[in-house]
Amino acid sequence: MSGVGKTVCVTGASGYIASWLVNLLLQRGYTVKASVRDPSDPKKTQHLLALEGAKERLHLTKANLLEEGCFDSLVDGCEGVFHTASPFYHDVKDPQVELIDPALKGTLNVLGSCAKNPSVKRVVLTSSVAAVAFNGRPRAPDVVVDESWFSDPEFCKQNKLWYVLSKTLAEDAAWKFTKEKGIDMVTINPAMVVGPLLQPTLNTSAAAILNVINGSQTFPNSTFGWVNVKDVANAHIQAFEIPSANGRYCLVESVAHYSEVVKILQELFPAFQLPEKCADDKPFTPTYQVSKERTKSLGIEFIPLKQSIKETVESLMEKKLFTRSARDLTPMVHTVYLLVTVFLLVPCACE
Length: 351
Ligand SMILES: NC(=O)c1ccc[n+]([C@@H]2O[C@H](COP(=O)([O-])OP(=O)(O)OC[C@H]3O[C@@H](n4cnc5c(N)ncnc54)[C@H](OP(=O)(O)O)[C@@H]3O)[C@@H](O)[C@H]2O)c1
Prior knowledge:
Elements: E1 7-11, H1 16-27, E2 31-36, H2 42-49, H3 54-57, E3 58-62, H4 72-75, E4 80-83, H5 95-115, E5 122-126, E6 144-145, H6 153-158, H7 162-181, E7 185-190, E8 192-194, H8 204-213, E9 218-219, E10 223-228, H9 229-241, E11 247-251, E12 254-257, H10 258-268, E13 277-278, E14 289-290, H11 293-296, H12 305-318, H13 331-350
Parallel strand pairs: 1-2, 1-4, 2-3, 4-5, 5-7, 6-14, 7-11, 8-10, 9-13
Antiparallel strand pairs: 10-12
Helix pairs in contact: 1-9, 5-7
NADP nicotinamide-adenine-dinucleotide phosphate binds next to α1 and β8.
């Protein structure tokens, strides 16, 4: 209960990662001032208000990243600020308005409130591997990506990687601003985050698993780093609590191509109908490594990818975001299912 008597702030609390962060902070005894874009929407607040300790120590406030100064009162009196809010989705019409402005201006808006507030001892910014690994440097199994890598905005623009660009510009601006204002900041740079959902709605990274179990005929020809949401939330808190924590921390348990993810799903859920083919005929995008050296100093012992995938699927089922019917079963299981149905029905019909 290292947080007893301490007040911290979390932005974007209704989101996937931030919900877990609020949960762990409350468990550790912190008082949490949290921002939500629309507190009148129960889908954004109910799961938070139901957390243990929420009644006594969670305070929800309405705030939009693009409204200047609206984080002032939220940050007031907080020792730590976890800035997690930032749009994460790919289907965008206007990248500047939908992704880049809220990520970049929103980060500077939150940091501006921190700069005005002497109570803030440290800011933990939820950045991303998106701000680390997209610079055109070749990827291969022997290449080790680490915290010294920075994504290149020009490379992102050329390849229309708008979400990646939004995170790259936001982190870069955050480092410049905090250096200028003398704010102590640490960034957490996770890869694709999976694991159980606390919120009732589907988020982009859990959809990365849902999309391959949802009857798709093919899996994407993509390779990602993967990490469990509980490790990500925990790393944020460790980065705040450990006085010597500094700089950036890449969070990746393992790097795996989708073919590997499908293999794990087959082992875990043999009755699922899973894609057998890759979406294109090109060679699989190569794997690479991501250094765990710095993250070790935060005391993170990563949850293995297999367990994270299991937890994601079970959670999607529990939240009814993934429902299976007889049509989803593999042909062999389907036959067994039909035989059992006939076997059970025939005696009934004879009675
Ligand atoms: N999930 C991943 O794989 C992953 C990996 C690396 C880094 N990250 C980073 O982690 C953070 C959280 O991502 P997530 O996966 O938890 O996504 P999420 O569930 O979509 O959460 C995003 C949060 O940002 C809030 N937000 C977006 N635009 C806003 C605005 N204009 N004003 C106020 N709040 C706004 C959302 O509020 P609403 O609920 O009202 O929309 C939501 O609470 C983001 O910074 C993301 O870039 C995520």
